[in-house]
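Exam revision sheet. Question 4 asks you to relate a sequence to its structure. Input first:
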Amino acid sequence: MTAPTPSAPPFRDTRLPFAKRIDDLLARLTPDERIAFLHQFTPPVERLGVAAFRTGQEALHGVAWMGPATVFPQAVGLGATWNEDLVRRVGEAVSREARAMRARDDRVGLNVWSPTVNLLRHPLWGRNEEGYSEDPRLTSAIATAYTRGLRGDHPVYWRTAPVLKHWLAHNNETDRDTSSSSVRPRVLHEYDLRAFRETVEAGAVAGVMPAYNLVNGRPNHVSPYLREQLRAWTDQELLVCSDAGAPSNLVDSEHYFDTHEEAVAAAVRAGVDSFTDHGTDSSKTVARLQGAVARGLLSGADIDAAVRRQLSVRFRLGEFDPGSDPFAGTDDFDTPAHRALAREAAEQAVVLLKNDGLLPLAHDTRVAVVGLLADECKLDWYSGTLLHRSTPLEGLYERLGADRVVFAEGVDRVRLRTSSGTYLVVPAAPDAADDVPGAEGALDPALVAGRTDLSPLSADAHGTELALADWGDGVLTLRAPDGRYLSVAEDGFLRASADQPGGWVVQETFRLEPSAAHKRGHLLKHLGTGGHVCVAADGVKVAAQDAEVFEVEVVERGEDAVARAAAAADVVVVVAGNDPHINGRETEDRTTLRLPAHQERLLRAARAANPATVLALVSAYPYAVDPADLPAVLWTAHGGQAAGAALAGILTGDVSPAGRLPQTWYARDDDLPDLLDYDVIGGRQTYLYFEGTPLFPFGHGLSYASFAYTDLRVTSGPDAVRVSFTVTNTGAVTADEVAQLYVRAVAPSVPRPRRELAGHRRVRLDPGASAGLSFELPLSVFEFWDVAHGRWRLEPGTYEILAGASSEDVRLRARVGLDGEPAGPRPVRERGLEAADFDEHRGTRIVDATRTAGDAVTPLDDGPGELVYRACDFGTGVTGVTAEVAGEGVVEISLDDGPALASLTLRPTKGPYDYTTVDAAFHATGVHDVHVTLRGPLRLARVGFGG
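Answer key, structure tokens:
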């Protein structure tokens, strides 16, 4: 007699909806198994046949860290394309390669941590390369396109599951785990939340990652906005994955909680579902969660909600339905189509900033290609390993022929002389292995150790000529003649062992420090360890003592080589910019907009030797360069594997440039706000509010063609404003134009953007061809966040519609009158004043009212600080005022520009969250502006009026 075959459990039944299958699987898990699911590295449940799972696979512009993959332009470069269709296709290619790579290496994850939708508010942010734009609408459009490509178009199953980074208001690396972004309600709703919201609402997002920083005094990992905002935007389950180490930061660096049990409990209750902490070791996180449950800080329902969200992602990825997953057999990897797409994306990302007619280059032009990046194809922290490589030099060799191209890198050729008269020498290296660096991949490349299999440097009578490059702020790299960079491994010895500077802690950077004991001597400081280089019997090393004093003997200055090359050419192309691992990267903000001094020297030398000089900036962020004496200037982000060929195609006119700046390029450092000033309205930041003259404005970019804008038509309806106009290519070459549509309120009652992007379209037109473009703008485009009433409001009045080629190059204008809701005074007698709902402020910042919810306001440096609330209606009269405050100090209330009418003194409370209510007599009738002055270390949560 044959035993019956056991039926598959319901969670394996593809006929059931995912929700029922998740319920079934969740019910089969033990409490300990459920808790274990909350770590990034979820263990298998073998008795149920459930495999291990890892949240997180970096895929910002290609599959990262896991070995060779197609490398597309940096995210800021994709933003510069202003092309959603292109970016969607890039997302598709990246997700296909992720699937193909996972088929042969199960370490490759399908829960991809990308894209980054943090707004590029401040150009000195070290991670500028990871975002798309300073504008929330453009950021959302590009991010939505990328997530749709990552997700795939199947109605049920997802090719990969994208997670948006980094929630919320995160634009600084300086003190990033302890600094707090003070974000007023208007900035929160109109700026920082908008990019996330519109991308989530588009339906191709699996989750978000909170940022390291705090917002209004509260860590993002316990933010109430995860529940109040994020999860209110969609009915879909969203997985919230912590950033690496951030859960521990809640106690260790932020000191927001006393114990790790309290911290993980607060994070789970706020909405964090997966803890990225302690690498692959889940034991500490599991123990903390178990402790939180034992102490009653977390319930089983809290744990279940987090597990359910992870399982929702896994079911959508087809993990439990291998026979039904339409993406299971994907093997598209490094295909001709992906290579062509990488080239297309790199071409579309190039922005022509200035052109006095020097470009495009004739095909018989003799070109000097010079600069520190002329023969480089740089990668960043979130790049994959290159399968193909194209530098600007190689691109021009291929396009013009090697006989028409000369090259000078512009490094300083030096020898380092020791105090004993010998010179540092690089020993000969064995024949290079065939292995591609990074080919093996790493779950955490920060843990990859340096090489110790090569002999360290020593000293002899002749020494080795080294290539010295100064990347700014005195940060140097030194390179051996065979191209290997000097680096320091864990044993402390100095070797020529690195193909490029890189790593979480870069081990290939140095600084020359003047020696007090030697007039011409310098100490050579290794920046990765902080130690100084010394020469010992067993080799050159970094040590805490016996630092060697070196004299730098210059064999050739870089500008001399550049000048020779430039003088021998018809045109010189100076390729300048940054190395993405040095001076502006994750963990390190920039200090200036200026081009590094070494590269400024090279640019001056080239221009002096040959006025026909093109500056090609290849960088992760804007620079403040003076273009006055330069006939042509271009910018591109680091363009991935096809960067050089793409740039060559633009320079020679094979492709007309059509990239557009995704952020404002400021003319000088003085134009910038403080890095930690997140008030884009009060600080007049970004093209939305900046009132100065930018070096190059948002949306700027030139073409080898010219375009005419005509036939603007604007009609308003009950739900939308419809706009149409015609763009015509009046030039002689086929080219793309990026038509941009902006709106502005003509006479707003509150500060509104000078102009605000409402739509854009990238179109390709043959000479003489025209395209009619139409836009439908929902009335919500014209709304603002009304702090007086805590909601969006369309203000009635006149609005201007502007169409053109950039935010400043406006070709067509029209005005339209819109009905809306008239402004009403604040009903303060009935509602009082929430402290953070001010119209204007001076000398204050917003902080957390409690650890779980609410905002309060505190004066900077104990004050005085001032809050202004416009048009407050006291009706027939009030006779008293109350203030909910904590700390100690004085709150003064005045009307309009008059003297203080009430002074409320707060005696010291026990702690910052121990609020008390203080009151005083206060008489007012009618409508007035209320001024609140804060003195002392207090927190004001609310002001009320009565009587």
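Marking note for examiners. The first helix runs from residue 18 to 28.
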